[in-house]
Write a structure and sequence with these properties.
The structure is a homodimer. In chain A, the strands form seven sheets. Chain A has an eight-stranded mixed beta sheet with strand order 14-24-23-16-17-18-19-15. Chain A has an eight-stranded parallel beta barrel with strand order 26-27-28-29-30-31-32-33, surrounded by six helices. A five-stranded antiparallel beta sheet of chain A has the order 1-2-7-5-6. Chain A contains 36 helices and 33 strands. Chain A is about 45% helix and about 15% strand. In chain A, β17, α17 and β18 form a beta-alpha-beta unit. Chain A is α/β, with parallel strands linked by helices. At the A-B interface, α27, α29, α30, α32 and α34 of A face α27, α29, α30, α32 and α34 of B.
């Protein structure tokens, strides 16, 4: 028989799937001998059952809950609903993965008009009892009964009543309310519920409990939770558990309090306990971010004993869980109770730094340090930061608006918006925005995702804003009390400055400074060290970065190459670990300087001879480009793709430009080339394509205009020969784009080898070069065995392969991609994460067919997926030789490649 | 050891691959006891060797040729190069497949200044001897030595000299030239060769022979031959043979002659010997089409004995070869010699009719009759013909210009052009052209292919023009002597009418009438019978058509469905054998009448509600459409595809229209819909796509606007229920377009079944329907096993599948497709013939994966390949259930399907 209810001591930390994260953490702490208020967990199986059976419970549940309740009553020596000695409970959700603030919580459950008197009596504190009661009525009324604002602009109905009572009582703060005021509040709340919903507030404590349980399971499918799961790819099938726990009170006066914390700094990764507390308060006050709490270090002064205990528990938790924990505690009349522990979310930057530290502390192994951080987080080490001189100047100029708490490192600027919907909308039309809120709530996550950075007036380091921002890797400042936000006017007043919606603002997530205008940015510390602008020994960040990435390199099998078109990019890529250039787009070179002039002359040519004349001008320039690239790559392979885009891309576009701008551009080009405007317009007309993505491009250009390919091949090989003549190592690889048939590959391989071998013989040098192809058409995958007869390497162009395999133009997804991800037709955008099932299957086919023909076929990927961790993992799995990505994604790819290798080894061990 | 030379009696008719068609035919005739001038064949192996060894011959060749020569000398009792009793030869190419006029021929080889005297002496006819000599020098000078016009406008240098000598001699015709004139000609020709080429004409007969052999093998790679092979997909690797045959002379006076013929009429298929002859002439005079010969029936009067022999041989050949033969003969002083026999090329229309006749005659079996005609030829039975009333009126109006010989049946009109290059160029810019030439030559084939029809002033039914036109299935009239063509002026005078380039002309290939202007056309005889406008018993064509197609239906396994959008199309399709509708494009219905108004209202809707309101107007119209279709299809399945094209196709296109036209259209629509022009333009802007082929279309529309799909599904099923309520049979199938993922299929299958089952229950009828999908994306092929979980049928949309698999937009091939076919990167345009290697492989994958999941999965094809014979064969091979094509292609598909089944059975038998 399935067991549906676990008392805390019956579970353990490994039972996350069944008990959820919170339940498993409470069980583990209980077993570790840490004081945890007793209680029990309703398993995630119930949630699954609930949704599979029309929102009803298994028959045996009621009996099991009764038994668990009785056991808690026995341990505590109090009774649930006993008017004389009442036992109170909190009821909270707790899924397998943490979903901060997404689902619902009820505190002080078990209070009614009778038990409140009992609580008053046993605590000797009627004010406390009634304060607890009015809080319970508020939460229950909102969460279980559903009395909520009916629109975004409407205020919370409970808040309205509270404000009115405070005003009438002349009480500026909640704490100034008297017992009578609180009694009146409870009555007014209940009246409001009766009036608005036609419901009587339940006096029966069991009815209260089942209502709360229903709300918890129900909250698994609320819009916020669904949106959150989508964002973090949490399957709906996991379900949530529900924890019923004895209430302890942090609001029983000045010897009570409550707090939350992290065993390390979750924003910067520093190894020190980090957190906040509020005296005489309940836990939700801290997490909600409504009151700005005090830093945890001050607890040492406020309650030294509790602080000491907390430090001990912190050490116990870290050494037990071997990872940073995020915890909640409550102090009830000097007694410390732990309410939660779980692996804490951290900024990706902190995750990487922390992993390095923990290895040094001996807490985790080197492999664990490599496996732990999300590979994507490596990008944070390279993200631009504010230019220090410019910032100093801005501050000198009086542009420092305010300071808050640093909750997400990095520098970000954007135009100010005051709500999440605007953030999404502005982003959609191409604006950079900063989202500014009094505090954020789960409804805001999409907007947070759309923003460059987040700034809140209230809340601490563990507030919703801070937590979510860290997880998203966003720049974030919280608790910036100086902000005076007026949502209705869409503006805020900050130290006498008025900041309106749309104004530019900069926020520094390292220092928590809020600065007027757009601050110029500068390369990150790591890049500064690489550029020689900062000493390695002065940058702990750099040292940690190097340590982690060096470890990663020990474990990865995949090589990591880069997509680069200039010597400068190539140099940076080599510093960042590139072992080759996987894609040099020669067309990029065609746009530089006055080259476009010759390119246009070539396009306007009517004969091969005219074309060759124009190409003769381009030849020495391309050759110089390649010499530069080869030298920068110091002998690593340099894969150069022949001209790829359709020729019309080099002429003005009637669709992209407004009519006047188009006319003007045409007229300018006509003048430059000494032809009439009609000639230009006619050529534009002739080159126009309905679907340029599927048009006259790639190797098709070289079939119709072989002289273009010939010029490029000559430039590639002559450049290499000249470098070789200087005695420098060089490895040029010629890549043919958009190949779909073996005949194309044969045509270009023969052309390339004929030209190359002739040049090499002429120079009399030793030169190793390869001729291969992009695999970017489904047909190429299908006939990969044949193509491999002539191709010495394959490089998956997964951007185009995704477009053609899925029949989706990357430029034309605006109308449906959001709906597709929303409706789970795509698990994620296939242009961001490689579509393993479809595109991936074609890749596997190409790999296996290609290798069948040519066992030593070199295979890589140069689509943008090459820098995306899950795609890198897939490339590892199917046995590619390298991934190629943009220079700044190299550390991500290196770590992802190492993680893929380590996971594979672990998986094999498990087998 | 390889044998390189076969005397005629050593070979046989089955050795086509080795001896070429001509060589095999000569061998077979020799063995049949038909009188054939003795000779020998140099095999195609030599041709292959020649091109693989830098144009040199195998070492043993010379010895073998010598031996064969000696044997002929022995049989003929004459000697090659003997001044007293010279043996003369013809040297001709002869490939495995007939390539009329593509390669070179030399006659009278073995004449020189000495042997000419010997020939004069033994024939007693010096004029004949010198006439033969001057012909030989002309041919050899042109073909072997290469004295040709250097430009298209330059006249043939031999012709120039001939004209001069004729003028000086006062001789209007060649036959008026005296022996002295001819002697002078030979001298002048040789001088010209010496002067222009610096070569002495070879006196050594062996040097002559090897020169001629070299020219024959060399001609395999001349431009014309290459172009011809491309057109008819003849591999270059086949090579040509070379036949060396004793000369017999049709030009030895009034008891000599030469002719060519067919055992039946190759244009109309009638069972009567067909051909032409010239008295006192050599064979090339007939084939070249320069002199208009006399019909073969007149030979009965001119040379009754030879005619009788010829009729006997004709019967012998037909009963021996069991197929129509095309033959050449020469009568030398009353002795009939056969020079060639081979299976004759025929107009596709004739091929079909002939097959039916031959079965009736007991010459071939029913299966052979089905296998023999090219399936494409069935389209000729349905091609429009001229409207008889209109033609009568045109003739009454004096618009009948002239009459010629009917060489290709059908009615065609077009604008007059006078050379092949123009025909190609005009066609390329979208014009319909008629190609008019004095006579055609192999250089003209591309232009002939580009023309609607061909009209020549000279040449008979076996002239180059007639032969090629028949093979291409073109409408053609030859030998229309009234045409007086002036190439330089680009005009012709015909019975006092001046016809200039660009004028419209009509030609009737059945009656050989040339008529001024564009004659209106009318449906073909077969379609007239179907339409009840002509009685079946009055139309032999109809009867033959029905007979053949009925046989075909006995043998085919594939069902044949149709693509139809209207009841009228559906009715015609059923008459033409459709067993279902494989594709009804609902968007076609959206354009009819005032519907486009509501479609546009829907597109301009901002909310679901507005969209639903517009859709409510469309619903009853769509429903009526479907009722009409169902009734027309009488219970056959009707596969209806949900809306497919991107919505912008229903609004004016800024790219397709000129700015003013666009403005005007927008303004008109704005007025109609009662909105501003800005609203329309903004929506057009918003819907604009870079690659609409890969954009927001197909089922993607239904994911974002489910209400559109829902309306269509409702209309499909309600219409079916109403038809069923009337007690009529009906089978509606719902087809989801552009599916790439199982999630899409699931979404639409569930939506369809939910809506359908609700409606069916409401109507209380029995209704069987299927839900399935187009397979038109590579990804769909890859995940076909998953898609088949929800799809009850697959229908390959091979147009789009080809576009996506090959990454080629069908609309954008203009820049490179010609070069691709030219350079043999594609064997043929993959949009015309299914690309088996690429697209076909994906189809096989989809079939096997789909059937693995759902063994009874129904699979068809509804792309345009469904009516193309080689593609139909492929569909048969991979086990599809049906092909669906446009109504007029149904007979082609039926015959192709039968041929595929029969070929498969033959193939299995062979195993």
């Amino acid at each position: 028989m399935t067991k549906y209810v676990y008392e805390f001591h019956e579970g353990n930390g490994k039972m996350r799937e069944l008990l959820g994260g919170k339940g498993a953490g409470l069980a583990e702490m209980t077993n570790l001998g840490i004081s945890v208020p007793p209680g029990f967990t309703l398993t995630t199986d119930i949630c699954t059952y609930y949704y599979e059976h029309g929102q009803s419970y298994p028959a045996e549940l009621e009996t099991e809950v009764k038994a668990a309740l009785a056991e808690v009553e026995r341990v505590m020596g109090r009774k649930f609903g006993d008017p004389n000695n009442p036992l109170l409970f909190s009821v909270r959700s707790g899924a397998r993965a943490s979903m901060p603030g997404m689902m619902d919580t009820i505190l002080n459950l078990g209070l009614n008009d009778k038990t409140v008197e009992g609580l008053a009596q046993i605590t000797g504190n009627p004010r406390f009892a009634w304060d607890s009661y009015r809080r319970f009525v508020t939460m229950y009324g909102d969460v279980v009964l559903g009395l909520k604002p009916t629109s975004k602009t409407e205020e919370d109905p409970f808040e309205v009543i509270l404000e009115r009572v405070k005003q009438e009582a002349g009480a500026p703060f909640d704490t100034d309310l008297s017992t009578q005021d609180l009694q009146r509040l409870v009555k007014l709340y209940k009246d409001e519920i009766k009036q608005k919903l036609g419901l009587d507030f339940p006096e029966d404590v069991h009815q209260q409990l089942w209502g709360a349980i229903g709300a918890v399971f129900g909250s698994w499918m609320n819009d916020r939770a669904i949106a959150y799961r989508k964002l973090y790819e949490i399957p709906a099938s996991w379900g949530t558990a529900c924890n019923v726990q004895t209430m302890v009170f942090g609001n029983r006066g000045e010897t009570s309090g409550t707090g939350v914390g992290f065993t390390r700094d979750p924003a910067l990764g520093t190894n020190q306990m980090y957190g906040e507390f509020l005296m005489n308060a309940q836990g939700e006050d801290v997490v909600a971010g409504i009151r700005t709490p005090r830093p945890i270090s001050e607890l040492a002064i406020a309650m030294p004993d509790s602080y000491k205990q907390l430090v001990e528990i912190r050490d116990k938790l870290e050494s037990h869980f071997r990872d940073m924990q995020d915890f909640e505690f409550t102090i009830e009349e000097d007694k410390l109770w732990m309410l939660q522990t779980r692996t804490g979310k951290r900024h990706p930057f902190a995750a990487a730094r922390m992993a390095v530290d923990m290895e040094a502390e001996g807490l985790i192994s080197e492999k664990e340090a490599v496996l732990r951080p999300e590979a994507d987080g490596m990008a944070a080490f390279l993200a631009p930061i504010f230019d220090s001189k410019a910032k100093a100047q801005a501050i000198k100029d009086g542009n420092l608006l305010a300071e808050g708490l640093p909750a997400g490192p990095g520098g970000a600027f954007g135009r100010v918006v005051f709500n999440a919907t605007d953030a999404e909308a502005w982003k959609a039309r191409g604006e950079k925005v900063l989202l500014i809120r009094k505090f954020t709530s789960p409804e805001d996550i999409r907007g947070m995702d759309a923003a460059q950075g987040i700034l809140t007036a209230q809340g601490g380091m563990t507030s919703h804003a801070a937590l979510v921002a860290r997880q998203m890797g966003k720049v974030c400042i919280v608790g910036c009390a100086a902000l005076n936000i007026d949502y209705e006017k869409a503006e805020m007043v900050v130290n006498n400055h008025i900041i309106k919606e749309g104004d530019w603002l900069s926020i520094d997530g390292f220092t928590a400074e809020v600065i007027l205008g757009q601050l110029p940015t500068t390369p990150s510390e790591v890049l500064q060290v690489f550029a020689g602008q900062r000493k390695a020994e002065d940058s702990k960040t750099y040292q940690q970065f190097i340590k982690l990435i060096t470890w990663a390199d020990k474990y990865r099998r995949l090589e990591v190459w880069t997509n680069a078109d200039t010597p400068k990019q190539a140099e940076q890529a080599v510093q960042l670990g590139a072992q080759g250039i996987g894609l040099c787009r020669t067309e990029h070179m065609f746009f530089e300087g006055d080259r476009i002039h010759y390119v246009r002359r070539m396009i306007l040519s009517d004969t091969k001879e005219e074309r060759e004349e124009a190409l003769a001008f381009l030849f020495p320039m391309q050759k110089q480009d390649f010499i530069g690239l080869y030298k920068a790559m110091k002998g690593f392979p340099v894969t150069i793709r022949l001209l790829d885009p359709p020729l019309h891309e080099f002429l003005p576009s009637r669709e992209a430009l407004k009519p006047e701008a188009f006319k003007e551009k045409v007229s300018q080009i006509a003048k430059e080339l000494g032809v009439t405007e009609e000639v230009i317009e006619e050529r534009i007309e002739a080159l126009h394509e309905s679907n340029p993505m599927l048009g006259h491009r790639g190797c098709r250009l070289g079939v119709t205009f072989p002289e273009i390919s010939q010029m490029q091949i000559r430039a590639i090989i002559e450049a290499a020969c000249e470098v070789a003549k200087e005695g420098l190592p060089v490895q040029p690889d010629i890549m043919i784009p958009v190949v779909g048939t073996v005949q194309e590959m044969k045509y270009f391989a023969e052309m390339s080898r004929r030209i190359a071998d002739e040049i090499i013989a002429r120079y009399g040098v030793e030169l190793h070069y390869l001729v291969g192809t992009m695999i970017e058409l489904p047909r190429a995958c299908v006939v990969a065995d044949k193509i491999a007869q002539y191709a010495e390497f394959f490089s998956f162009g997964t951007n185009d392969l995704t477009q053609t395999a899925c029949g989706i133009s990357r430029d034309d997804t605006k109308g449906f991609m959001a709906a597709y991800v929303e409706k789970e037709i795509f698990a994620s955008d296939p242009f961001q994460k490689l579509d393993r099932e479809g595109v991936g299957e074609l890749m596997k086919m190409a790999v296996s067919k290609g290798k069948a023909t040519r066992p030593d076929l070199q295979i890589g990927i140069c689509g943008e997926h090459g820098g995306e961790p899950t795609s890198v993992e897939f490339c590892h799995t199917i046995g590619l030789d390298y991934v190629s990505c943009s220079p700044l994604r190299l550390p991500v790819a290196r770590l992802a490649a190492a993680q893929a290798a380590l996971k594979e080894a672990l998986g094999e061990k498990e087998k």
